[in-house]
Request: fold
Amino acid sequence: MTEKGGSRKLWGGRFGRDLDESMLAFSESTGPDSRMIGEDIWGSEAHALMLAECGIIEAEHLREILRWLEKAREEFEAGRLTLKRELEDVHMNVESYLRDPAQAGEAGGRLHTARSRNDQVVTDFRMRLRVYLLDIREALAALRETLLELAAEHAYTVMPGFTHTQHAQPITAGFWLSAHAAGLARDDKRLAAAYGRTNRCPLGACALAGTSFPIDRQLTAELLGFDGVITHALDAVQSRDFAVEALAALSMMMTNLSRLAEEFVWFSTPALGMIEVDDAFATGSSIMPQKKNPCAAELARARTAAVSARLMELLTLLKALPGGYNRDLQNDKPPTWEACEGALATLEVMTGMVRTVTLKTDRMAELAGAEFACATELANYLVRERGLPFRDCHELVGSLVAALASEGKTLDEHERVAELLAEAGQEISAEEVAEIVEPGACVRRQQSLGSTNADQVAEMIADLRAALATDRDATQEAHAQLQAAREETARRVAQALGGR
Amino acid sequence: MTEKGGSRKLWGGRFGRDLDESMLAFSESTGPDSRMIGEDIWGSEAHALMLAECGIIEAEHLREILRWLEKAREEFEAGRLTLKRELEDVHMNVESYLRDPAQAGEAGGRLHTARSRNDQVVTDFRMRLRVYLLDIREALAALRETLLELAAEHAYTVMPGFTHTQHAQPITAGFWLSAHAAGLARDDKRLAAAYGRTNRCPLGACALAGTSFPIDRQLTAELLGFDGVITHALDAVQSRDFAVEALAALSMMMTNLSRLAEEFVWFSTPALGMIEVDDAFATGSSIMPQKKNPCAAELARARTAAVSARLMELLTLLKALPGGYNRDLQNDKPPTWEACEGALATLEVMTGMVRTVTLKTDRMAELAGAEFACATELANYLVRERGLPFRDCHELVGSLVAALASEGKTLDEHERVAELLAEAGQEISAEEVAEIVEPGACVRRQQSLGSTNADQVAEMIADLRAALATDRDATQEAHAQLQAAREETARRVAQALGGR
Amino acid sequence: MTEKGGSRKLWGGRFGRDLDESMLAFSESTGPDSRMIGEDIWGSEAHALMLAECGIIEAEHLREILRWLEKAREEFEAGRLTLKRELEDVHMNVESYLRDPAQAGEAGGRLHTARSRNDQVVTDFRMRLRVYLLDIREALAALRETLLELAAEHAYTVMPGFTHTQHAQPITAGFWLSAHAAGLARDDKRLAAAYGRTNRCPLGACALAGTSFPIDRQLTAELLGFDGVITHALDAVQSRDFAVEALAALSMMMTNLSRLAEEFVWFSTPALGMIEVDDAFATGSSIMPQKKNPCAAELARARTAAVSARLMELLTLLKALPGGYNRDLQNDKPPTWEACEGALATLEVMTGMVRTVTLKTDRMAELAGAEFACATELANYLVRERGLPFRDCHELVGSLVAALASEGKTLDEHERVAELLAEAGQEISAEEVAEIVEPGACVRRQQSLGSTNADQVAEMIADLRAALATDRDATQEAHAQLQAAREETARRVAQALGGR
Amino acid sequence: MTEKGGSRKLWGGRFGRDLDESMLAFSESTGPDSRMIGEDIWGSEAHALMLAECGIIEAEHLREILRWLEKAREEFEAGRLTLKRELEDVHMNVESYLRDPAQAGEAGGRLHTARSRNDQVVTDFRMRLRVYLLDIREALAALRETLLELAAEHAYTVMPGFTHTQHAQPITAGFWLSAHAAGLARDDKRLAAAYGRTNRCPLGACALAGTSFPIDRQLTAELLGFDGVITHALDAVQSRDFAVEALAALSMMMTNLSRLAEEFVWFSTPALGMIEVDDAFATGSSIMPQKKNPCAAELARARTAAVSARLMELLTLLKALPGGYNRDLQNDKPPTWEACEGALATLEVMTGMVRTVTLKTDRMAELAGAEFACATELANYLVRERGLPFRDCHELVGSLVAALASEGKTLDEHERVAELLAEAGQEISAEEVAEIVEPGACVRRQQSLGSTNADQVAEMIADLRAALATDRDATQEAHAQLQAAREETARRVAQALGGR
Reply:
């Protein structure tokens, strides 16, 4: 049987021709696969150890296989093992390295017993994705912490709250920033769930039906740091819902980031001037040096589109795909890697931007009471103190505000406000008016659970910090589990090799 | 202050003109809102009860409000309360009904104390969505059960397993069907998580900052059957991640359904003829009456596109939206309702289609061993019994198969197989060959965890049934919680009214 | 042969059972189809006239068919012909009406000769879509005209131009608004192209292979107002690229509208206050009556997400669909209708909003020179008049601006600017500086083709108006062609019936 | 003024700090920009030539600029000019090369006169995209030609036509393949339209408002091979509809390719076995060497998802972006390049796959008449020859087919068919029946315009070939125009340099 070069040799004698060059370029996946060389080698080590443990291969073969896998790992870690396009994917590259007659040779040919590329590739995919997810969760934790720190500093910094991008009511900067932290906490919950469904081991499902060899799938799963096996063999090779779930969680997180970014863009416009993005996250103009373009925030918005498009790509790719493995599934990895890398980069930049932003608290205070933002509190006062129906109070205050506006006055003209109230039959002294409509007082008066009052904000920040600590613990434990499994595999490899 | 018709009156005296007719048509939401009239009334009842409990409104006002809310509910339940376009949305319709001078009048004007449309609408939204999610989970449970029942019946029905839509290895129909049930079980987990994040109460967040009235948000949350409050007021009014999460879970579920549907389409083609869809889920041709178009499956595929597009719609809608409430958020409901209704209809039809499908077991058996599907087992035999390396065995069997194919023979010509094996240095009797390559035997021989072997399939079915029972219990408990809360609200309403 | 009710009777005797109720609900399309009842009847008239013309049916049968088709049209136009769900679609409803023994009866059974639902449905689809496209083009023309009118009024209204949402250079409002008109002109070109590819007649393609009857496809195409036939029968029934193209054109147009809408939202914030949306397109707050939420613009942004999602839905629906007609294709119409109706409504509202907007020209002027927006012109002056390299001038002016900013001064402090320039070795008098950095002068000085200079803007407006007139002529001609074809069909129908 | 490294120096003295490393990585675009180095240099040459022509820079400066631009081009063409990340983008890299004091130095600082990165980047983008579009049109032409060649060879090859993936009527392979060619011809029309709107020159729009220098935009446009200028400066810098249009055209084309790919997958399953994909476009199995996985087709399906996702990405990115240049727009290029490269690779592979596919004509013929596919023709015969209503004939034949099916017979049992017809009152001889239901005869009998009859197919192929020739001519002319412009620029550069 002649060798025909490339991975063709793995398909035995029938294929008369090599792949067309255009087809090779179209179908090889060494680019995306290069992110999971370490995973592929680790997977093969665990598989080989298990095969020996179960008596499927012999100790001497195991040693040969492990010896050359270790060598491959060394080459890889030294940056010398680069994937050859003509070997198409990471699996063929590693196996071909092994089966080199000068290396493991014949023993290498025993490694693929009770395994198929179908279960192998999805094992590598899950192993690599779980690391991305942990990295993202850590980066997200850093952003949450940064937001909460800044929020805590600004629990008393009054600023305008908006609806419809119009002034609505005074709030505090601490309230504003902690709202984002609260939303991002849910994103972490979704990422954690995606991690849980990702970290199940499909290895041993083989082509689609399982195998007639007496393998021990639990053992491989443990050696690879998985939380357990994904039992059903056909389900294991055909399903990619874990990646869809991860990308959905990332898309939602990015959408949340895009909303924070949008606020950074607008709050830093000259017209509002409430924040100033640090030089390190902005670009300028050679000619208008006062100008600072909030490019980090703009690019974060743009990246959001890229991530949600990757989710759509994966859903469209999977739609109506018949069962078992189809080659289409090879294209599950590029959108997944791109989404993960886009999310990671965005988190890092957003964290830096938030950490270094300057809040212009004077300008915030100046805007906080503008545009009659405290009118609601005046109406609420009437409801509360005078027992009038809410709608009537709102109409009364509405008329009052309209009158002020037509006179070019604001609620800060307390005497005039008192006069107008009196005309409407509500005697309130100018001093009292002053107290009612002062933005800081408005904020302090909000007392309901979750409101912008500093005590409430402090409590929310405390709760969000506690949740953050818990999430970080979970991430660290997950990391530790992977690390321990990696070490246990290494220990067993060393043991097997030591027995040589 | 003159009434200007429509909801304009709620905005007080300043607006000089009514909405343009095109703008009214563009902005009113009575169509989508009509799905949540009951929720809106319930929400108002709970809010009113809480206001009285906290001493914010008086008992007599409470009675007036509740009396007319009950009336509104009766009208609604009798189908007589239809939403008026010119009142724009469900909230204004209900409030306007109440404030009619002939009805609660002035007292009705007190209901909106410590509440805003911003928190009210997202409360209604969450209350309606949670019901959809429970309905969907129940419909999904029915499909899972149906698949598992059919799978259990066919634990021994041998059929071909495919990869690349090409024959790969023999499996059983029970294995095939239970793989789908396994995938759908994860969809339920995602729906359950979405339910958990949906069922949190935003009421009391008011416009965005909370309120200065001493409200009890926990009480409202309990009366409305929520699992708790969504604390941060700004987060509560601006976030829609719960809907995105629900639509992401539905998109993945639909994608799984589309893959099952695709298999139903192709398995029922004349060329394969492995299943026959029941008349009740197919359409025919007037001229080729033997023809049966698997329309239910085709339409399920199409519906998948509609659901994932709704997810994309929601993500795009939210992208880069600044904080607080923006009117864009009004358009969160149409895609959500459409996705839920599409998913429900698809589940119902798919369940009916699976429940009534006929498996043509003879044809399945005939195809199971075709296309040398048992060659893998022959190679594995050599690995196992002769201790040869896997790759060598595969090459040997590959050459053997190629030889058979060139002679127009199959693996069923056991004598010839034995001859070819002998030529390759592997003596195996024709009888033994027959035993090795019989599809049923191949299936039986798979022994690994999660493999197509009947025992494994039986265990997986048992596990999936146990998980299904757990999921159903959870759904029923959730339903019961909502029902109990509804009854508790009714009890308190009756008590308040009885005290008149 | 017994009737089984519903459209089942059309499939002859084999189907033992009616459709499952869930399946009927899932598969019937009377809702979306109700938009094309008129088209379906017209299509049948033309088909019948052609069949008679070609000698395939006899004059007396033609008369019976036409008589009852006219009757159906009358019923439909009087609002009495509503589609019955159990007859599934518009075609079966119309045919069933006809074949009623009390009506055309047996003759009705001849109408479907040389026709299939496969070509009939796509004919109706194209006929209805082309009308939507013309309506949209007209609505778009109205918006373009409105933008150009407002632009022409404001050729000299100076305002700030933005990049990165930061002040960049002074422009005019006429320049700003005409830019949107320029972009929308290209959208019309794309819609026109989509119209051209939509308005081709597939009728006569039959199920997929054409027919053995000697039909005259050109005749039907003419009677139905098409620009020609879509020749290839299989292509005609399986392709939906015309709808994708239409939705792509609409998605781009909506994206352009969303950008205009975004500017309306932000320009009408109190911080900028450059425009005021009319009451008829805004909503207010009961408590802050000065507040005006630009809801029309917000909802336009939201609608954009809905339209581009429909494009995605259609692309996903079609992806990897095998050839010929598949039932999935039934779901091509809902996203198409929704996209068209969303686009139409958005155009109408945006046109009204632009038509009635108030430009606050004083505020625009005030902001035009803010933020050193004229610094570029000062640098350009140095390049032009002093022959210095561009980069050097920009650095020089940059330093100057930085110095001014640190002193809390602006470019309007001409003496100080002159001083600083002198320090940098460039003597320019304060008077000259004043002339250089006056926003209006900056605008006037822009002289390049397409620049913000009033003459350039006037020329662009003239060109855009000319293009608009041409586009409107094309739309009107297309409308006229449809009308003429409709009348010709009616004339022939009358002639045929008159011969009774 | 100290140099701070990177492009910071271009923003003058104010920025106190360099970009954060994470921000640099996030914001630099040298990867995507590396595809348009040649375009950037060409654009600068043309701009410099124009500046000199208009008297804005002097001849000696022009020479210095051109000399070093030529040098840069040489370096680039020799693969020695690679973009430095810290210089962020292609423009800064080229300009920085030029301004090196050892190179053009001060003169290089004059090149950016009357230009901004805002107009420069979109000029480069359009220049690069137009080349991709031409390359794609050529690759598409090759596929169309290949399909038409194969179609022409198989004008008489009878095969089954499908609807609902069920046998419907006999067609020919020529008819099948030419249908795809017909659909792809429309894709080319859309690509041509996108090219037309892409190939307009924005250079000279400057930052957004045009310039006060007396530039000649027509001249630059001509030197760069554009069909004209995009006049409105603000429109020119803010619009990206040309890229959306290109991606929409590509998405539709890919969707069409995915449908052809789907048919290749299914037609090559063992169950149908109507085609065999060549070894060069398939992969095999080491153990089932007869197995051939149609990977090229599977990967083409998958790539479709990637391209339509890029369209969605671009639409989402642009949605609600305010006017002028925003940094988000930088991310327009990656999805565009990826879509173009994905489309090109898919076209190339699909062309190779179609060119080398084997049609198994015997198997096609065998399947053509199966499943009563000729029953329609029998009914049509009765309509035509016996004057019966269509619906009645179809019911009659339906009953006949049902009877045959219940007897396990087919339409090929002509005697029995004749008997059953006689029972139904229609005397037709067995010989006549044979003639009616022979698949080849059925095909020949289709006579309508665009039907599957060989003459019709031949005419359609001729028309499609003529259209292809026209399209190719247009592509070649466009290529020639670009080439001529490139040469004219080179000529003028040489002339300017020669004058040194």
